[in-house]
Design brief:
By secondary structure, the chain is an alpha/beta fold. It contains 24 helices and 17 strands.
Length: 662
């Protein structure tokens, strides 16, 4: 018989019989023996192709083509192999069909352009041929459905866990075999040996016992990982996207599933199904990293059912913290694999932090400052804290690291940044006299007539948006100048904002802050404003961040550390008990403001000479200064007699003198 091709044989016989009847009625020949041969070749070729397809699908078990198809298919398969046999049969079927239609008297009427029909038929058969080839290649690595995986026997617990840095001898380099349970990678979390804090005689660093111990939240249950892996494969399979979960990397808050796409599956098809996967997994959001850097996988990050908390003590007791030789250690947290991440603020050298309200920005700043208090004395590190919200950073008031009281008045911010800019210029003059290039070289061998090594200065701004609303021109200009030049002098900036729009994070500011941290934001546009890439809108909050290192590359997902109010109070009290801060006198800050005003006053007088009247906005725009300084210049120009008082119902001042200042 013909097996599954029998209906086609019956149809061909019916057509030929009908043609014979029509020929007898019209008394003229319509078909000849060649048409019988073409029909037989076409039906036999389809029967043999059906048999070959059944053999590939059933992994060697024949069936589907009947006796005739099995005989022809088996003979050709034994002679030339699966793929060549299928190709020869496909060509024979196309040629037989084309001859039967084109050579027939009704061929031109049935098929207007036979050549196009042949091309279309060839394309359709070519698509089927490609699918047969893909199925033949997959036989070496058979795909298993989620149901097959669920029914697979469970291996022993010790054999299911692949410990990082200690792979088993029988573990292949390219991952587990198809159909097995995903390997579960476990990070090495051996704590470092506790060492007492170093002392320099005058100052005593706080001990690690002031911080709360790490919470034992437990590991992610293995059954949760296996269940979600099966759900991921099942969901993608329902959209005709064939993938395999090769490995699972559980972290403190999220678990990353490494997906290996099947043959012919595009990565874009997987990323387009992020919302469908989140719906299936009942997750707030999922993030897809395609591909994972350095690995041939697509990373799918899903929140854990019971997220863990990363504490500052846990990071400071890790081997990564002990092994770090950073000048200014920053405890970032743990990545998706549970590995501790430590950065060096001196190499960043400036950090831009953004995120929605409650996402973890202020906690990140608090952990950064607390980490500095545990590693650096006031002689080594000084802080300038600017907190317009008057909530977070005021808790550090009174520690000897402060170069000045915590700044909470936005009207004083320009004066403070001007002092920092003048301090940078003073340090450059000191380095020039000493013949050195940066702070590290100067502190290695300070001149004998100097006051000794210079400390690092870290400027922390908790909310940039408030400053940009008050004095955008002055703040942007001073921040850009410091970010461009202050690295060599040991001055570093850390600014944060909860409104990452282009009017707050301007192009000038963004270009000079290479290191960026984005917590959860409300839209993809905000994510692109901060990171130049999407992804931050899919974070889950509560310290979940994307860290863009200064050297570039893809942003890395990290769970930030948490510092409680009790820990901050204990560390602050430890330093308050040791001495008062050595702060900048108020007169010096006022002098910095007067120096800056004197620098632009001459330019302002030259500007008003060329106009009949001026406004504060005109002064700010043409001199490149902020509106507040422009208002002060207007009052000073009036006192010096260059301009008159403002016109009624206007800020425009008439110009009275047209003589330049001597």
């Amino acid at each position: 018989g013909l097996g599954r091709a029998a209906p086609l044989g019956a149809l061909a016989g019916a057509l030929i019989g009908g043609a014979v009847l029509v020929a007898g009625a019209r008394r003229r020949a319509i078909i000849d023996v060649t048409h019988f041969v073409a029909a037989a070749v076409f039906v036999a070729a389809l029967a043999a192709m059906t048999d070959l397809a059944a053999i590939v699908a059933n992994q060697g078990q024949p069936g589907g083509g009947g006796a005739i198809g099995g005989l022809i298919g088996s003979a050709m398969r034994a002679g030339i192999g699966d793929v060549p046999a299928f190709l020869v049969l496909a060509v024979a079927a196309v040629l037989a069909l084309a001859y039967g239609l084109v050579a027939s008297p009704w061929g031109a009427e049935a098929v207007m352009r036979p050549g196009r029909f042949v091309i279309l038929a060839t394309r359709l058969l070519g698509t089927g041929l490609l699918r047969i080839i893909a199925a033949a290649n997959a036989r070496a690595r058979p795909w298993f459905s989620p149901a097959d995986r669920a029914e697979a026997p469970q291996a022993e617990a010790g054999a299911q866990v692949a410990v990082e840095d200690e792979p088993g001898e029988d573990q292949a380099d390219d991952g587990p075999a198809w159909g097995q349970q995903p390997l579960i990678r476990v990070a090495d979390r051996i704590p470092a040996a506790a060492t007492p804090p170093p002392q320099d005689g005058r100052w005593q660093l706080p001990g690690i016992e002031l911080l709360l111990p790490a919470e034992d939240s437990g590991e992610v249950p293995e059954d949760e990982i296996v269940s979600k892996a099966a759900s991921i494969e099942e969901t993608l399979e329902s959209f005709k996207v064939q993938v395999r979960v090769a490995e699972a990397v559980p972290g403190p808050v999220v678990t990353q599933y490494l997906l290996e796409p099947g043959p012919g599956v595009k990565v874009a098809r997987i990323t387009a199904l992020a919302n469908d996967l989140a719906l299936k997994l009942a997750a707030r959001s999922v993030r897809i990293e395609a591909p994972v850097p350095g690995q041939p996988f697509v990373g799918l990050e899903t929140p854990n059912d019971n997220p863990a908390v990363v504490t500052l003590r846990e990071v400071m007791e890790s081997q990564a913290w002990a092994a770090s030789d950073a000048d200014i250690k920053v405890a970032l947290g743990q990545d998706v694999a549970g590995n501790v991440r430590v950065a060096d603020l001196a190499k960043m050298p400036h950090v831009l932090i953004a995120g929605a309200t409650g996402a973890g920005k202020s906690v990140c700043l608090t952990s950064l400052i607390t980490g500095i208090m545990f590693t650096r004395t006031p002689d080594e590190m000084q802080l300038v804290l600017i907190d317009p919200k008057m909530v977070e950073l005021v808790a550090f008031e009174g520690i000897p690291h402060l170069r000045m009281p915590v700044v909470t008045d936005v009207n004083e911010v320009v004066d403070v940044l001007t002092w920092v800019s003048n301090e940078m210029a003073r340090r450059y003059r000191t380095f020039s006299k000493a013949g050195v290039r940066n702070l590290a070289s100067y502190n290695a061998s300070p001149p004998e007539d100097s006051d000794g090594p210079l400390p690092y200065i870290v400027v922390v701004i908790d909310e940039l948006a408030d400053l940009m609303m008050t004095a955008p021109g002055d703040v942007e200009r001073l921040l850009a100048r410091l970010a461009q030049m202050a690295r060599a002098t040991g001055i570093h900036l850390v600014i944060s904002t909860q409104r990452p729009s282009v009017d707050v994070i301007t192009g000038l500011i963004k270009a000079n802050f290479p290191t960026r941290i984005s917590f959860m934001v409300s839209s993809q546009a905000d994510s692109r404003t901060v990171l130049d890439a999407a992804g931050a809108e899919r974070l889950i909050g509560r310290g979940d961040m994307l860290y863009a290192p200064p050297e570039g590359g893809k942003a890395q997902r990290i769970q930030g550390v948490r510092v409680t109010d009790e820990e901050v109070r204990a560390a602050v009290q430890h330093w308050r008990d040791q001495g008062e801060p050595n702060q900048v006198p108020r007169q010096e800050l006022q002098q910095s403001e007067e120096d800056e005003e004197d620098e632009v006053f001459v330019e302002a007088t030259e500007l008003v000479m060329r106009h009949d009247s001026v406004t504060p906005d005109q002064l700010a725009r043409e001199l490149g200064i902020g509106r507040s300084l422009a208002l002060k210049l207007g009052h000073r120009l009036e006192e010096e007699g260059f301009v008159g008082p403002p016109l009624p119902q206007s800020l425009r001042r008439p110009v009275l003198q047209r003589q330049p200042v001597d």
